[in-house]
Amino acid sequence: MGSVLLALLAVVCMWGCSEQLFYLPSEQQVFHQNRSSINRVLDVLWVIDNSGSMETSQANLATNLDSFIDGFIKRNLSFKMAFTTSDAYMSLFSGNWADSNFRDGGAVNGHSGTPIITNMTPNIQDVFLKNARPGVDGKGDERVFQSIQQTLINPNNKNFLRPESFFAVIIISDEDDFSWDGSTDISPNYSNPGLHPVSRYVNFLDTFTGSVPDNRRYNVSTISIMDTACLNILKPTTNPSQKIGLRYMELADATAGHKGSLCANFAETLNKISGKLLELLTQFPLNRTPDLATIKVFVDAKEVPESATDGWTYNSSQNSIYFHGNAVPAEGQSVVINYNPATPR
User: Fold this and answer.
1) Structure confidence at residue 345 as a pLDDT band (50, 70, 90)
2) Is the pTM of this model over 0.90?
3) Is residue 214 exposed (0-12), middle (13-18) or buried (19+ Cβ within 10 Å)?
4) Is residue 18 domain-resident?
């Protein structure tokens, strides 16, 4: 009997000694909304179609600035905005960099004398009103993508993009891109073998911004003709050059930008673009991969709901918390994120 008990005790001891218990302590990360803790720097390049049919759209952009910048000003973001046009590509053929310099307006509506707008620019509304209206006497040969590239590599425009900024490109056009190496106009021939693939300009922007595909520090948004309904509203019979912006939308999709219709309310579209940028500018990276069910987010000690509309969401590819809508915290607010790690250290 005694030997049986000893054997049982030995088995129990072996089982107990081999057992491993893991405890995953909860994590708490505290952020204070200031420029040292998260990215609060934004650089914007507006790319404006300056062909003959764009007067109304340019006016709509100019008069709706508040819809775009209000959220940035309220949260005390540092921003810069510059402007180029759909015929800036001409510097490629003329050899004159002045063709792709940042624009400060046009002959009809006047020049502001301030080609780069910042959050510190005096009379910012008046300056934007001029800069956003470069006129409608530009080339009918639409090459927005080449124009973006020529503008950004132009030595006269150097140092616009700050190393710590998020870079937003916003295209406003009622046609489509037909960038290629030749000097003649190939539109509307999408099947021309010389037409540059959209991926060429994704690669350029990746290189220019020092980005990688799964962590881009830029995006491209577009306000263009998105469907035949909008195309018909704009009466293509009187202006047959207008086109659905197929390539613009492809570039926006490739870079996680926003697609807005030229026929929609401009204020609402600009508000959506700025809202998306605010979300990207106020992401909070986590130190550990979280157990999603345990995440709790607080702003100034008040719990924020999980919501893609007015709350927070978790981005697994970035291992970050994103805020949306009215939940985007302002400068000076305290953000606390509690969670249990998904795995032990």
Assistant:
1) confident
2) no
3) exposed
4) no
